[in-house]
Amino acid sequence: MAARRELARPPAAHLLRGTRSAGVLLHPTSLPGGHGVGDLGPESHRFMEWLSRAGYSWWQMLPVGPIGPGNSPYASTSSFAGEELLVSLDHLAEDRLLTEPELRRARVAGGKACVDFPAARIHKRRALLAARDRFAARRGFSSAAFKRFTRESSTWLPDYLGWLGAEPHGLDAFAQFRFSQDWLRLREAAQTLGIRLIGDVPIFVDARSADVAANPELFRLDRRGTPTVVTGVPPDCFSATGQRWGHPHYRWSAHQASRFAWWRARMRIALQRFDLIRLDHFVGFHHAYEIPASAPDARAGQWRKQAGRELLEALAREFGSLPLIAEDLGAVTPEVARLRDAFDLPGMRVMHHAFWSGTSGDLPHHHRVHSVAYSGTHDNNTTKGWWAGLDRASKARCRALAGQGHPHEALSRLLMSSPATLAIVPAQDILGLGASARMNLPGASRGQWSWRMRQPLTTSAGSRWRALLEASGRASEAAQSPQ
């Protein structure tokens, strides 16, 4: 039997090795604003200014690709394009591509506590169409900026537009151009403020996506282009029938033959947008649950070995030290942990999972230094909502360790004291919001992903958090002092 091949340690240290720091989890769609949905405009810049003053170093987002069924950012229709709802109408007005009356009309969808996705899309798309026509009239499609965008996007944009049935100089191409321009503004502002961005790359893609349409050979499909096996997880204590996600599984032999070209391109554009990437469902890179496409639920599935090691080796050859966070939640076997550690990837710890027993690995004194600690993720309840549903014994264990006070404040203090290099708190916990502010309930198909902040975060909240981050050794040196 051949000896197991070990990957040599990458030449550069992982981005999170070193200084303790903190960040906030908030998807841009959850920002306040007047156009029915948060976006990459002025409110995103104000949010980063608040982060900087409060001593934070990181802003973590959910996937920013075009959303698919159920408005889920994890069911994107493209691994490369950006969601057009994130395009800033305010920036279009600043660039004189929208008039003030057109901007006001687009605010009809605003003023609600939650994202109204259908209304926001109607009003934003109408405004984008007006801006596109004005851009075309000014010969913007012949500009150096647009030509540079199309050249840099040549590996994916034609496929995406072709899948949509869109024209090279049409509304969809213009929306992708403006998304890229808004993102450049965001990155420049983030660098000035000392804020780094964390993105999220889902492990799987939707069957009805431009990715599958343009690269059918990379997925396990039949002759009609229909998945033969789909993704999910087996039955557990949360579901007697398991979860049937429905994404097609990868045909790993085709990825290996291309030296993982599609994955390398996918990671390349993600790293152009973000400093660090959360790699979703990391367990699935070692073994994934395969369900026959004809099965109505997940009970008929089985675990199969995946080509994650070869994939990560290919990424390491291209990018060196991998700026990734392994979302190693769920049934983490020793083999999964070895795969994570072979590439020097920090894993995740979630405080909401810590108090069900007295021996949980999510208790802060068990956290590895090279890890990322969260109070909760986008799939968890808010801390206030979590506390309301917690049993008496778990509450007692939590109080014994976290102390008294409001649960979201006590758990945040405990989170920031973790040995983990990076600690992330959801914006809902900064605001002390209850279960109605939950971002997502796994398994629910309606009414998810729509929470929004009513108002920007306050200066007084920033002062309180800066004091906590300074006390726990996490305050950014680049942070501005609260005004």
Q: What does this protein look like?
A:
By secondary structure, the chain is of the alpha/beta class. It has a domain at 21-70 and 194-471: Glycosidases (TIM Barrel), CATH 3.20.20.80. It is built from 17 helices and 12 strands. It has helices at 42-54, 89-94, 100-105, 117-137, 144-152, 157-164, 171-193, 210-214, 252-257, 261-273, 308-319, 334-342, 383-388, 392-402, 407-416, 427-431, 459-471, and strands at residues 21-25, 58-60, 196-201, 229-233, 243-248, 276-279, 287-292, 302-305, 324-326, 347-350, 371-374, 422-426. The strands form 2 sheets. An 8-stranded parallel sheet has the order 9-6-3-2-1-12-11-10. It has a 4-stranded antiparallel sheet with strand order 5-4-7-8, with no helix packed on it. Helix 1 (42-54) runs parallel beside helix 7 (171-193) and helix 14 packs across helix 15 (407-416). The protein is globular, with a radius of gyration of 22 Å.
Write the layout of secondary structure elements.
Blueprint: E1 21-25, H1 42-54, E2 58-60, H2 89-94, H3 100-105, H4 117-137, H5 144-152, H6 157-164, H7 171-193, E3 196-201, H8 210-214, E4 229-233, E5 243-248, H9 252-257, H10 261-273, E6 276-279, E7 287-292, E8 302-305, H11 308-319, E9 324-326, H12 334-342, E10 347-350, E11 371-374, H13 383-388, H14 392-402, H15 407-416, E12 422-426, H16 427-431, H17 459-471
Parallel strand pairs: 1-2, 1-12, 2-3, 3-6, 6-9, 10-11, 11-12
Antiparallel strand pairs: 4-5, 4-7, 7-8
Helix pairs in contact: 1-7, 1-17, 14-15
